[in-house]
Design goal:
about 180 residues, alpha+beta, OB fold (Dihydrolipoamide Acetyltransferase, E2P), 2 domains, two-stranded antiparallel ribbon, 5 helices, about 20% strand
Length: about 180
């Protein structure tokens, strides 16, 4: 090194810049990488929230299911053209679907960029034993809509699954 310059000559500059990039990559990597956890589903709160052993409450990332009782959140569904009369029956159907499908079963959880919501629940993609993604299944069955307020890695995939359920008039999208 000569004077205050970090490198002298091409070879030294390449080594210096490589070192800087490695340090920056190491610092930035944890925010972009997903965390994987496993556990057994102990409880089903509703269509989009479960309790997993060793982890606690888990909110299924990227989806929204109707509440058991009428709430301000109903507008998220009715704005999409979903009849209000479909909300309570679908909330019940989503709950029972999850009870049948995942209660007392092992799951693998994968987080995205945001790992927790404002209530402290872990935000995760929930994978079943066979590798099936529960979040997507609920969309495909018409039990959920895509949570559009925030970005997440599988948003485009989830929007396509929601569109398939809508076109098939499943669950929320049924016209009775």
């Amino acid at each position: 090194m000569t004077g205050n310059r970090p490198c002298s000559g091409w070879g030294h500059c390449v080594l210096f810049l490589t070192g800087v990039l490695l340090v920056l990559g190491t610092c930035l990597a944890p925010t972009a990488s997903a965390e994987e956890l496993t556990g057994k589903v102990l409880w089903i709160y509703d269509g989009d929230t479960i309790k997993v052993s060793g982890i606690g409450k888990v909110r299924l990332i990227g989806i929204d299911t109707p509440e058991h009782e009428r709430s301000d959140r109903d507008r998220s569904f009715t704005r999409l053209g979903i009849p209000a009369r479909n909300l309570r029956p679908t909330a019940k159907a989503a709950l029972h679907y999850n009870i049948d499908r995942v209660k007392n079963h092992p799951v693998r959880l994968v987080t995205d960029t945001d790992t927790h919501d404002r209530y402290g629940r872990l935000l995760a993609y929930v994978y079943l034993d066979d590798g099936t993604l529960l979040n997507r299944l609920l969309l495909e069955q018409g039990f959920a809509i895509v949570y559009r307020r925030f970005d997440f890695a599988l948003k485009e995939d989830f929007l396509a699954a929601e569109a398939r359920a809508q076109n098939a008039r499943k669950g929320l999208w049924a016209t009775q």
